[in-house]
Amino acid sequence: MLTQQDIVNKVYQYYIIEGNPPGYDSFIKNCTYYGKDGERCAVSVCLPDTIDPKSLPQAGVEALVDGDFDGDFDDFELSDELKKHWAPAVYERNDTIDTGMFISRIQMTHDNAALGSYCEDEEEIESFKSGFEHRLRNVCIDHGLTYPGDA
Fold first, then answer.
1. Quick one: which of 53, 143, 69 has its CA closest to 100?
2. Containing H/E element for 100?
3. Element containing residue 101 per DSSP (H, E)
4. Beta-bridge mates of residue 24
5. pLDDT tens across 90-144, in order?
6. At the N or C end, where does the chain have fewer CB atoms within 10 A?
7. What is residue 76's predicted lDDT score, i.e. its pLDDT?
8. How far is CA 112 from CA 36, 74, 121, 130, 144, in A?
9. Directed axis angle between helix 122-143 and helix 102-114, to 10°?
10. 46-87 pLDDT per residue, tens
């Protein structure tokens, strides 16, 4: 089961150490779980191997966890699989820290760093990495986690 620290470590490794671009589709100008060239968003990086990120509906991360992609709350198979893979602290709402799910905060860290940076060249990828590092460090501070770049 992935903990909050495991999630932080995974996304740090994927984006900062490995230098992968964010899951951002420059055609639709929006973040996506899986881009046309294999780009992945933060949630996609943290999925269990049994879930193909290309199969995810374009629904927000909270809809994935809640099992409600289309308003009828009947999409629980994926939701149950995620809840087996992530520790409860990853997906349960915590209104005392950031009024939502930790995994949503990780996704917003990715999305906010990616917006406006289409990551089509090295300069834009470096801009994303810089913004992502700053935001991820703040998540670690807020949640009492170790920032991997300080280890």
1. 143
2. strand 100-101
3. strand 100-101
4. 31
5. 888 776 655 568 898 999 899 888 875 555 666 777 788 888 999 999 999 999 9
6. C
7. 55
8. 20, 30, 18, 12, 21
9. 150
10. 988 888 887 777 777 777 777 666 655 455 566 788 888 888
pTM of the model: 0.85
Contact by Cβ (8 Å): 24, 39: yes
The residue length of the chain stands at 151
- Percent of the chain as helix, strand, coil, to the nearest 5: 50, 10, 40
Treating both helix axes as pointing N-terminal to C-terminal, what angle do 122-143 and 4-11 enclose, rounded to 10 degrees? Answer: 160
Cα separation values, 49 from 44, 45, 52, 53, Å: 10, 10, 7, 9
